[in-house]
Design brief:
about 425 residues; alpha/beta; globular
Length: about 425
């Protein structure tokens, strides 16, 4: 690095929506960020599609699109969890490291397991996707293991969000404070040319506490104070604050797209009894519970576990989306459209572009209570360009405000447009 260039401190606020942050700055609740914006400016950055933490963060890390990376969600097509090994392009800190520029990367998603590079990396702490803390150098793992959240702690915090949202927000902020203190300690040990500090709690708050916006505002206000502390501790650094995606308004309705496809003969049953059992199992285990959920849970605990073969892992990126239809009892050959597991933003069709055009036209016109269900519907080519990646759904969509799209079948077997209140 040129001696006249200042080092950079990059702070990532996960899921921090532009309009929401501007509102807080205008109210005087994020004065530190407001000062940074007054000095450096505030700009809207377009996120990737789909606008989710994963794939947005891998795109931020590599400069590649989700289509180029083959990463569209936290889960792969076979249901397994994405990891840093699924990112096959070099990250910008790896490229800088090859040029002799050392970096400190802290709590950025999709960095576990930690890959060796010319710098220090502490992986993300998302207990749902990261079973343990990973660091480079590995010697840091024992020193920082107190930062990890146990599954029980995660569950307790999540459960408390309905009865005591203030307690949940407090737990999230305490977690953030521990991370900030550890980051400052590591940053003081040597002079890094680049430091990245990621704050996932700004996104988790929306997922858990969207029904309590004032609680979220209070937490953002406290996180702003932490940003002020980082700026004060490292005055020699240029500071940039970014976000990976925004936040949709809370959904009031769930649209069960596969249920609608079944009702409208895009999904064809091959074995009615088997289909009904599997559809009821999906509906009950997700939305109801009851005796069936208990039976399925017992089966999962005491039943024989199928071992994942290396071939299954290798073929995760080329799995046939329609293969899952057979496990539910639908006719793979006669069915023409289906939302495969782990796709929240698109559906696959059989090789019939006439069906695709008709289906897109129908989805664009779908309404509930006189409101459009989808804000937009695209072909794969319109959204991702001329790509040969067969994992990308043939039709991509974005829900309208107030709606979420669910691949699971609606509760019960009523053959109507199945939308359930959230």
């Amino acid at each position: 690095m040129n001696s006249s260039q200042k080092p950079l401190l990059l702070i990532g606020l996960d899921g921090a929506a532009y309009d929401f942050v501007r509102e807080l700055m205008a109210e005087g609740r994020m004065p530190v960020l407001a000062k940074i914006c007054d000095t450096a400016g505030l700009r809207i950055l377009e996120s990737v599609f789909p606008s989710l933490t994963c794939p947005a963060i891998p795109s931020f890390m590599t400069g590649k699109t989700p289509s180029e990376l083959g990463i569209f969600d936290f889960r792969k097509a076979d249901g397994s969890i994405m990891s840093s090994f699924d990112i096959t392009y070099p990250t910008f800190w790896e490229t800088l490291g090859e040029c002799g520029i050392r970096s400190l990367i802290f709590n950025v998603g999709m960095t576990a397991p930690a890959k060796p590079f010319n710098g220090v990396l502490v992986s993300d702490f998302n207990i749902r996707y990261t079973p343990r803390l990973y660091c480079h150098p590995k010697s840091l793992e024992d020193e920082l293991k107190h930062l990890s959240v146990t599954p029980q702690e995660f569950t307790d915090t999540a459960v408390a969000r309905e009865k005591n949202p203030e307690l949940t927000a407090q737990k999230l902020f305490e977690q953030h404070e521990r991370h900030a203190k550890a980051f400052i300690d590591l940053a003081r040990r040597e002079s890094f040319s680049l430091m990245v500090f990621w704050v996932p709690e700004t996104d988790t708050a929306w997922h858990w506490l969207a029904h309590k916006p004032e609680v979220i505002k209070d937490m953002y206000e406290k996180i702003d104070a932490t940003i002020g502390e980082l700026v004060a501790v490292f005055p020699e650094y240029e500071v940039a604050v970014i976000s990976d995606h925004g936040i949709n308004p809370p959904a009031h309705h769930v649209f069960h797209l596969n249920q609608w496809l079944w009702n409208n003969a895009y999904l064809i049953t091959s074995k009615s009894w088997r289909t009904k059992y599997n559809v009821w199992r999906e509906a009950f285990t997700k939305e109801g519970g009851g005796v069936l959920r208990v039976l399925v849970t017992v089966k999962n605990i005491f039943g024989k576990k199928k071992k994942e073969t290396s071939t299954q892992t290798e073929n995760a990126k080329t799995i046939d989306p329609f293969q899952y239809l057979q496990t539910l009892g639908f006719d793979r050959e006669k069915s023409t459209a289906f939302v495969a597991p782990y796709w929240r933003w698109g559906l696959h069709i059989s090789n019939d572009h006439i069906v695709r055009g008709r289906l897109i036209a129908e989805l664009k016109k779908l309404r509930y209570n006189n409101q459009l269900i989808f804000s937009n519907v695209w072909t794969r080519e319109e959204r991702f360009g001329d790509t040969t990646n067969t994992r990308i759904p043939d039709i991509c969509f974005a829900p309208a405000d107030g709606f979420s799209i669910d691949r699971r079948f609606g509760f019960g077997l009523a053959r109507t447009l199945k939308i359930s209140e959230r």
